[in-house]
Amino acid sequence: MINLYELDLDALGKLLAEWGEPRFRAKQIWSWLYEHRVSAVSQMKNLPRTLIERLESETQLGTLQVAAEEVSADGTVKRLYRLRDGQLIEAVLMIYDDDRRTACISTQAGCAMGCVFCATGQMGFARHLTATEIFEQALLFARDLEGQGERLSNVVFMGMGEPFHNYEAALVAVRRLMDDLGIGARHITVSTVGLVPQILRFADEGLQVKLAISLHAATDEERDVLLPVNKRWPLEKLMEACHTYIEKTGRRISFEWTAIQGENDTLEQAQALGKLLKGMLCHVNIIPLNPTGGFELGPSATERIDRFAAALAGYGVTATVRVRRGIDINAGCGQLKSAVIRSRDIPGGA
């Protein structure tokens, strides 16, 4: 079966030409796919019945199959998708009071980075996703929202996997989000644990897409423990790349900080982080840890986070404490997949 989402407009036109269809049919189908965002070929009302029947027999609209879905009390929707080869990935839709509708999407099945507090990092790496598999996660949420009279406003590459480890496919997906779904570049965020060569490469892409760095520790000693990638690219190299990125793009970097009780929420770590980031065009997002079964520590208490943020302010570093979403539905990266595999014995674990 041909996945229509894998075809660009030229490829779609060539397929239809092989079928003896006129050229304008490609634009009609394209409009149904990405403007009307139909969920079935039968909804493409201005196509002849013979073409609809052939499309139904030889093509499909996407390959992601829902293996599980949970909806949080705060409106967060988390889906576990099964891929064609049986691998499982997660995607999350976060609903905010200010009308933002943000999709958090995955770029890999599993992850090779090994971050100790992350459920995905604990399960290891299976494979890269294709650009279409990445893009389709956002498309499906956009299609559902459209049916409710709403629109997908933001996309963050913060799901399973390291986007810059799957650089080419992730960047193709970014461009498709802009071109095919109409998501503005400044409403797209790509997160990395700190792959220095790819950060430098990203600086030359000429995109207005936001960059987020998963930092989580302000000293090499601490970061080596939490994020093994730091042994390859320690903080000195990472900060050099960040400064280069800012100089080339003029864009602010967001640093993600998962607040772990007694681990990285100390005044000493706040002071080290303040010294590290002082004077840099950046912002720190502090997110209390979503606990996982494979990591024994828990989220920081509110008073410790407030003290941490206040210490950063003393160095002129701005910080925002993010509200955790979907705590009641395993919304942390990799948690639903782990829970479902355990409870239902579903194959496809990384």
User: Would you tell me the overall average pLDDT?
Assistant: 91
Number of continuous helical runs: 12
Mind telling me the CATH superfamily name of the largest domain?
A: Aldolase class I
Number of domains: 2
**Largest β sheet strand count, sense and barrel closure:** 10 strands, mixed
Q: What is the terminal separation in angstroms?
A: 26 Å
* CATH level-3 fold name of the largest domain: TIM Barrel
Describe this structure in words.
The structure is a single chain. With 350 residues, the protein is an alpha/beta fold. The chain folds into 2 domains: 2-60, DNA polymerase, domain 1 (Orthogonal Bundle); 65-344, Alpha-Beta Barrel (TIM Barrel), CATH 3.20.20. The protein is 37% helix and 19% strand. It contains 12 helices and 14 strands. It has helices spanning 9-18, 24-34, 49-58, 119-123, 131-147, 167-180, 196-203, 220-226, 235-249, 267-277, 302-313, 335-344, and strands at 2-3, 59-60, 65-71, 77-82, 88-95, 101-104, 108-110, 125-128, 154-157, 188-192, 210-214, 253-259, 282-288, 319-321. A 10-stranded mixed sheet has the order 3-4-5-6-9-10-11-12-13-14, with helices on both faces. Strand 9, helix 6 and strand 10 (188-192) form a beta-alpha-beta unit. The two termini are 26 Å apart. The mean pLDDT is 91.
